[in-house]
Specification:
Protein name: LysR family transcriptional regulator ArgP
Domain HTH lysR-type: 2-58
Order of helices and strands: HHHEEHEHEHEEHEHEHEHEEH
Distance between the termini: 48 Å
Mean pLDDT: 90
Low-confidence stretches: none
CATH topology of the domain at 166-267: D-Maltodextrin-Binding Protein, domain 2
Family: Belongs to the LysR transcriptional regulatory family.
CATH class of the domain at 166-267: Alpha Beta
Keywords: DNA-binding, Transcription, Transcription regulation
Number of strands: 11
GO molecular function: DNA binding; DNA-binding transcription factor activity
Structural class: alpha/beta
Largest sheet: 7 strands, mixed
Length: 302
């Protein structure tokens, strides 16, 4: 049986990326933190931390971290079941719910799903934003309890449910289209018209270009704008074209501030909710809320 204090010390060091900060939060000395982690590594029989700057967990460390987080969640639920008042720790940093999701979900429908739970359970959340193709890795690494991802495959010890599809359209301003594109559009024009991408992981623009125009990755210029708000600003300012979800740009299309670059072309990206396969009331509630809101906000294909 792994020691709870040792596991807690390890989890805090991973979270804070520092022995000093972990010691301060746990109100113990740095030496005590170091001793607990050494004892845990001795029991596991493997190194759990890479002593770099910043500190980061080894592959074995990620598994231990995931184990601790699952155990901690179930323990908190047990305490609440036994003593509904005494078991609750109001807005405790130690009980944060960590979820990974794509920026477009966060900016459109996710908050409507999670807000009732934050209020009813007095939760603190730690939302880790990444591309929908990359959030799966954060769950695999034990950094979150669940993720919204375009990946279909289940991780060991996890379950998944299809939430729906997000429809992405190529959009830009009328002036941008007039400047860079003819009518009808020719594929070579994409090699000169700057695209707007969220970051280097954002594959939507390249996927669209390859699927509809046969343009390969790296054969077109692009801005990298790691902010959904600024991403849209770049589009409305006429600085580029980009793939944007219909639920996010509906009003901009209606007002004419943006237009669809190609009316009949779009990508429908599936979004799945992957989560630990635990008999947890909170996980069940989160899953129910997400699926209910997704049915209202996302495209549901037959």
């Amino acid at each position: 049986m792994l020691d709870l204090k040792q596991l807690q010390a390890f989890a805090f060091v991973v979270e804070e990326r520092s022995f000093d900060k972990a010691a301060a939060l746990l109100h113990v000395s740095q030496s005590a933190i170091s001793q607990r982690i050494k004892a845990l590594e001795s029991q596991v029989g493997q190194a759990l931390l890479i002593r770099s700057t910043p500190l980061r967990p080894t592959e074995a460390g990620l598994k231990v971290l995931g184990y601790y987080q699952q155990m901690h969640l179930l323990q908190q639920e047990l305490l609440t079941d036994i003593d509904p008042e005494g078991g609750k720790t109001l807005y405790s940093n130690q009980n944060k719910v960590r979820i990974a999701l794509n920026s477009d979900s966060l900016d459109t429908w996710f908050l409507e799903a999670i807000t009732p739970l934050i209020r009813s359970h007095q939760l603190l959340v730690d939302l880790k934003v990444d591309d929908q193709d990359a959030t799966h890795e954060l769950l695999k690494n034990g950094e979150v309890i669940g993720c919204i991802s375009s990946t279909t495959s289940n991780l060991q010890g996890c379950q998944s449910v299809l939430l729906g599809h997000m429809a992405y359209y190529p959009v830009c301003t009328q002036s941008f289209k007039d400047k860079f594109f003819s009518e009808p559009i020719h594929l070579d024009e994409f090699r000169y018209a700057p695209a707007v991408e969220f970051n280097y992981k954002d594959q939507l623009q390249s996927r669209y270009l390859k699927q509809f125009w046969g343009v390969e990755t790296g054969q077109y210029p692009s801005h990298e704008i790691p902010s959904s708000k600024s991403f849209l600003s770049f589009l409305t300012l006429g600085l580029g074209w980009g793939m944007a979800p219909d639920i996010q740009v509906a009003s901009l299309l209606k007002s004419g501030r943006l237009i669809k670059l190609a009316e009949d072309q779009h990508l429908k990206i599936p979004l799945y909710w992957h989560v630990w396969n635990l008999k947890s009331k909170l996980i069940k509630e989160i899953t129910l809320n997400l699926t209910a809101q997704a049915k209202k906000s996302l495209h549901q294909l037959e």
